[in-house]
Structure prediction request, 76 residues.
Amino acid sequence: MKEKDLIALGFERVDANNDWYGYTYDLTQHLRLISNDNKDAERKGWYVKLIDVDGIRFTSYTQLADLIDLIEKAKI
Prediction:
């Protein structure tokens, strides 16, 4: 996945002390997606995970877009 994919999906950039940055997307009040940071992405590529959830990682733009679409459509 590329940085431009995260931007296209509506992720918001979060800067930390001008040293590194990453992206977040709030699916609900209690469910947030978070990317790895730009320094890690230089080595491994961009990926996204659910914050505070281990063992699930999205590296495919299509799968991530499908997840976001599914959750956004299910909101009540």
Q: What stands out?
A: The chain is about 35% helix and 30% strand. The CA atoms of residues 40 and 71 lie 27 Å apart. The mean pLDDT is 95.
